[in-house]
Request: fold
Amino acid sequence: MDALLMTLNDQLWGKTTEVYNIGSEEQTNVLTVARIVTETMGLKNVKIRATTSPGVRAWPGDVGKMQLDISKIKHLVWKPRLRSEEAVRVAAKELNEELENTH
Reply:
């Protein structure tokens, strides 16, 4: 699929496509994300349970740990404004507000 997209891009605009990872410079884990989401939504008495140890794949194809390489975009003087946990908190807050506005 990527080759087809690049070919169409080359034919239509005559230039190649650049791909950049955008992310933070540190990792967080799914348990922290779950805690932030439950706190942001104001959920009480929620028990978060992991079925595997941190960093271990939970199912075939799962990624135990992931860290995007953002060095390419940083060469363009871009840098992340938020740390991972801050970005999760902002996203959870915005999604929660959107959910509240639709009900």
Summary: Helices lie at 2-13, 30-40, 71-74, 84-102. Residues 84-102 form the longest helix (19 residues). Residues 2-102 form a domain with the UDP-galactose 4-epimerase; domain 1 fold (CATH 3.90.25.10).
